Amino acid sequence: MKNNYKLKIICLLCMVTAAFSSCKKNEVAEEKILTNNHHNFAFTGHPKYHVLGYGYDATGRLANAESSTIPVLNVEKFITENPGLFRQNDDVNDYFQYSYGENAESYSNKLTQKYHLSLDLNFLKVAKLFKTELDASFAKKDSVSSKYIYATIRKMIKQKSMRIYFTTENLINNYLTDQFKADLVSLSATDLVKRYGTHVLTDIELGARLDMNYEAQTSNSKREEAATAGASISAGKIFNVTADLKTNSVDASSNYNQKLYYNTVGGDGSKGLIGELALDNSTIKMTIANWQSSCTKDNAALINIGQDGLLSLEDLVSDPVKKQQVKAAVEQYIIDRQMVLVPEKYTPSPVGVYYSQGLNVWRYEFNIDNIPYLRDGSWQYKQTYFSAFKVQATGTVPVYEYWAPTTNDCLWDRNGSISSDPYWHFGGVKFYAYATKQPGTVPIYRYYHHRSGRSHFLGADPGRPYPQNEWTNEGVAFYAYPPQ
């Protein structure tokens, strides 16, 4: 049964992907519908209280009922006997949530820090929760490369929220389910955690949610800013979603290999959306109106967990020996399933050299696919004089680019503070290279065209460019590898 279900999902994903690939330039894509969206699966927990009081796996999906398990608390009994300790808010509210990171580890840490998890503080410093969220949201496997930046924008449609106020002593003495009490005796701590998860849900929000998950590589040294800017721009262009996120589009200008993974939670599953878009050359636009209009209290799903809404499973164990065993089992369970960051195997990439005879200026770029003006016919590709790094490898330093709008000249320097000169506008990190000679590297010289007073050039050969008497050699700018 489960295999048939997965097969259906795979087929549906293929259909959606094929539909996207047929969209033409500047075409507004029709709203893509995924019947039986696997993020809108039928499980809703208790008919009235949803997953309040259920177990929850904090290594799983973020605020998703897929990661809930089975009841730990008899919530119905608790509310009947303690109506003043239960709060339900039925106000409908739209808002946004954000997560971002300079790499997968940073992203996971920020998700972890969203909650007061009632775990040991020293353990929380190294724990990286919600690995399954990374795997599912960004189509990752067991390990995640450090070369990617990540950001998520969540459009939240809250329909209602529910929370219980309690003391753990009262819960232990009066409101544990009979099954949980029996399992406390019969199961080992490890098996108990496998069955119930790491935590118990005590504060939940129900409604619908659109997740827009942005992934890219970047040469911007401010990687978190590059991630948030890229996500904000993508959400606006594709879904016409204006998130209340302060970003600067310049921070995303050095992003490449960009992808957007999106999915809906809650609402009518037959109108839900799920898919993946390559962004670098995409002009697809989508609408969420059909799905959004289907979102009601009746089809509300778990979309958020209160900051204090996760109670660690060990806190519901009274026996001190078993309590310590469960604590250790929870921590080991998290360690075994946490995200593993794979360091990037840094390799230098060739830097292309482009020249405009009309302007008498030079440009240095890894890839001009997203730089239209270099493809307008007025620029000539010369050759590759050196190879540098797109991301900061050990021992390298940033080489900054400055641009003079009055002359179109560019300057490259390891000094990041010459932008105080009003002639130059700071353009950010262009690439990474070495400040001193390293095995296999060659010196890259900077030249100034004193005859025109407006052009700079980088090259490995101290005899370049020609005619030599029109250029001043300003010395070694940095060290880089020869062309590859």
UniProtKB/TrEMBL annotation:
Domain MACPF residues, every copy: 19-341
PROSITE patterns listed in its UniProt record: MACPF_2, PROKAR_LIPOPROTEIN
Listed Pfam families: DUF5648, MACPF
Domain of life: Bacteria
Entry-linked InterPro entries: DUF5648, MACPF
Signal peptide feature range: 1-21
UniProt KW keywords: Signal
Keyword Signal in record: yes
Protein name per the record: MAC/Perforin domain-containing protein
Biological source species: Pedobacter alluvionis
